[in-house]
Fold:
Amino acid sequence: MHIAVVIPAFNVAPFLQTAMLSVIGQTHTDWSMVVVDDGSTDNTAALTAEFPDARIRLIRQDNAGVSAARNRGIAAFLHEAPAAPDAFLFLDGDDWLAPAALGRLAASLEAAPWAAAACARYARVNLIGSSSPRLTSLPPGGCLLARLLTGNVFANGGHLLIRREAIEAAGRFRTDLSYGEDWEYWTRVAMLGEFVIDRSRQPVLFVRERPDGSYRSNASNAAAYRPALDAIFGNPAIIDRLGASHMACLRQAADAEVEWSVGREWIRRGNRRLGQSWLGRSFWRNPNPKRLALIGLSFLRSGPFRPYATPG
Structure:
């Protein structure tokens, strides 16, 4: 299986070498990589050009956002490469892959010809990668359309391997979305087939918790989620598939999920009172016994409410 790795890169030079080396060091060697320098003002382009591997290509463009960068990478593989790849993986320039990541995901996808994508666990680390990785739970699998409508279950595209046919059918990332654009895209992929899971406890992806990253910049702002939610729930194909009444119920659950995420983020940042008000709003919108129990942990700032790791 030939895998296309697309790395959108905007001013991530301090981390990009780690990301690229993690691909070069894969046990699965049948891959090609495109780094899309999205108008960086640092030495992202120069650093990429230093790699002599013929499987790596650098594309430079004016700053247009992560969706446009991913779309440029997709186009490079589908329309400019000698042969189209079998699958795509979207790796953020500040994250990195475990050595067997591509091999494990490829094996899962090859064993499930009906699936649109394969996924596996990821782990979170602090900014400089010095903290012990915090392993996340196993992602869900199967038909994920309804599940994805109530919330994004993936960190990003770095622990997803998407079949080329699904990429071609789903279309491109929406460039009018600046936050949640990947979440919206996964719902379109989920319309096309199931997600198969690699069930190993070992992560395939390591995600840096950057203070200036997109998630940290937007996660405490409920309004930041709104454009992606409107795009997802305004998709005519999804409405036709699930029906308007079911979509209305799912939208309520999605709004509750956003409120929960906002509350959790405020608590992790140290504002417990504000965070718990958002948690309460979420619970009353969509009562959930598990969430009720978790609210108790918010007083301790433990579990999902733990403070962010410091770089040191």
